[in-house]
Amino acid sequence: MDNNKDKPSFFSDSDDYNLKSEPEAPLSYSVRRRTAQQIRRDRMQAYAVMIIFGLIVIAAVIYFVASGNDSGEQAADSQSSAASQVESAADDPASSTETQSSAEADSSSGDTSPISEAQGHEVEVIDGRTYIDGILIVNKTYSLPQSYAPGLDSVAEDAFYDMAADAYGDGIVLYICSGYRSYEEQEQLYNNYATERGVEKADEVSSRPGHSEHQSGLCMDVNTTEFSFEGTPEAIWLEENCADYGFIIRFPEGKEDITGYTYEPWHIRYVGVEAAKEITSQGICLEEYLDVSSDYANAQQ
Ligand SMILES: [Zn+2]
Predict the structure, then answer these.
(1) What CA–CA distance (Å, rounded) separates 133 from 169?
(2) Distance 298 CA to ligand 1 centre (A)
């Protein structure tokens, strides 16, 4: 009993029992110790194997995640390029006679920097918008950022209503059929065309998102976007007088290859009175006035 008291309590019961009842207890004990050591060694080996296996698994996971990200980015890239092919925005639904092939322009790998254009003009790029001689240029070469959402420009709007008031005095009723259009609205419009008629046809009648002048808030479709507007008293009055209020017929007849758009007698763009009068009197389009192209192949995005 004294012995037992001297021993640490966790020894007492079982050790006492082994010593007293089994002579081979010490042997059995050492065997058990060895077995325990063996088990510990086995466990260590097992742990080592598990750790190595775990490291391999982690390495494999990292590898697959990394390569998965790559392909994910590629997928995202191709998605965005597909989206940018689809994104366009056109302008006016009714303009459908333009036959310029835009399939080639679809290759977004144009190396021509638009900035190399407009030689002799003052070019300023502000937050992704290009101003040439102070005029915001938006066409197939020059786009607007998706985030640019100014609404209808108040100066242009005031100029329109001044014009409409004077027109009304002449017995002509002018109103805004379509003014500001957001990037998203243009995207929807263009995508509808692309879905209905295919990308190539859509590019003939519609601008890709970011490329519609309507997103600038500086243009309007007057009264309609139907070709029946051509030759009406309203269309004639507009063409003869809009420059006095700072507007130009943005896509004039005979300039389709330069503007990239069909003649649209209803689509006017505010550029200010001085520029409008000069452009109109010279019988040129805005691209000629600013010495720039309008071609998706030249677009930077
Ligand atoms: Zn328009």
Answers:
(1) 34
(2) 22
Distance 90 CA to ligand 1 centre (A): 8
Contacts (Cβ under 8 Å, ≥6 apart) of 183 = 89, 144, 146, 147, 148, 149, 209, 210, 215
> Given this model, what pLDDT does residue 204 score?
75
pLDDT along the chain (301 residues), means of 10: 44 40 48 62 70 62 49 36 36 38 36 70 96 97 97 98 98 97 96 90 86 97 96 98 98 95 95 98 98 92 57
> Which of 287, 238, 244, 288 lies closest to 264 in space, CA to CA?
238
Tokens of 239: 């063409």
Q: Just give the CATH number of 104-298.
A: 3.30.1380.10
Cα(103) to centroid(ligand 1), Å: 22
pTM above threshold 0.85: no
Place of tokens 């390569």: 67
Is there a catalytic annotation at residue 264?
A: yes
At position 200, the amino acid (one-letter code) is E
β 219-222/176-178 pair status:
antiparallel
**Catalytic residue (one of 117, 239, 264, 287):** 264
> Which pair of structure tokens corresponds to residue 202?
């859509």
Distance of CA 128 from the midpoint of ligand 1 (Å): 22
